[in-house]
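Posted in: Protein Modeling Q&A

I'm a second-year student putting together a small comparison for a lab meeting, and my supervisor asked me to include a predicted structure for dihydroneopterin aldolase. I've never done this before, so apologies if this is the wrong subforum. The sequence is pasted below exactly as I got it from our records. If anyone can share the structure token output, I'd also love a short note on what stands out.
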Amino acid sequence: MLSSLWQSPPGAKGADPDPDPPAPLVSTWKVRADASEAPAIVRVRNLQSVMAAGRDAWGRDAKPQPVLLSSEVSFARPFSTASADDSVNAETVHYGNLSKTLLNGIELFSFPPSKKKGLVATRRQEGPATPRTADVFELLWVQMTGRVVDGSRVALPLDQVPFLDAAKLRSLSLTIHLPKASLLGDGVSLTTATCFVDASELADEKKKNPQRSYARCLRLHGLRVPTLIGVNPNERKAKQMVVVDVEIDRFDVLEDIHTELEGLVVAVGYIFLSVYSNTLVSLFLCCIFPRQVGHHITNITNDPIQTLEASSFETLEALGTHIANKILDEFRIQDSPQPMRERGWQVRVCLEKPIAVPFADCPAVEVRVGS
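Accepted answer (user: helix_wrangler)
Welcome! Here is the predicted structure, written out as tokens:
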């Protein structure tokens, strides 16, 4: 379970020394099933800003990079009076104010830590000197709901009111997308979604955690890897571009690990599916992912001059399952020996072959592996 990242400012009234039980971390599908279909929704997509937190495509900390913020607010009741009166009232939320809340929160992380003059330091007494993406996420979540991501603790001082009223909500999702945080793809995103309990269940207990369940998902978008794959004779003669989307559901990690994860996925694509010299491919990978894939290359092969044409896959089904199992069984976080399968991750891999079917955008195969 995730630990809280948020610390109230020194001397602030309203600290919560007696937290509620945290909501369970489940899959995104389970949160959607718990929430069911909402009668009314307000969305904001791809608010553009700058974030100097987390890591960039090269694995460097706190480098300014573009960020896209998206949120979906689902309500437990329909817009009866709001639609009848043609006005924005308490039944809904003003999407302009929702946008301002998100942008005001991300503005605290728009400059590197050395240039922020303690803006964020006053809000967090402990933790890493360089804010992680998870730190940014929790600050935005607290401003919107008043509680930490798992709902276990009230994090806003008594003199501040959260932007949203949880008693009126069916579900809430928030996404931070970093479109330039990938060397070979369309970026990385982190999404949290939660389902709220019915307001009647909170009537007698003011402190009760309003969240029924929540999910966290890390996504690598559109990794483009030249790959030898296919069952047709012409497909065995040369590589073709394969577009890979990877989703890590039930993501329980606070560190920014997307560069290492991308390195592993790309290493599988290049090394296991290469028709060229392993030495050349390894050199290329070590140049663009020096820290991420060096140890993976050592573990994958002991003969630096063999070709791996015999190890190549013919189907997307086999390749997708192989990538997912590699992540679950071989990926490690820092010095922890625990494999990701034991952490309960669910890995979803979607593979596309854009040129395989000339008169279609692409054929695609998606697999899900893990508990």
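A couple of things worth pointing out for your meeting: The helical segments are 28-35, 80-85, 95-107, 133-145, 258-271, 278-288, 290-300, 316-330. The two ends are 16 Å apart (CA to CA).
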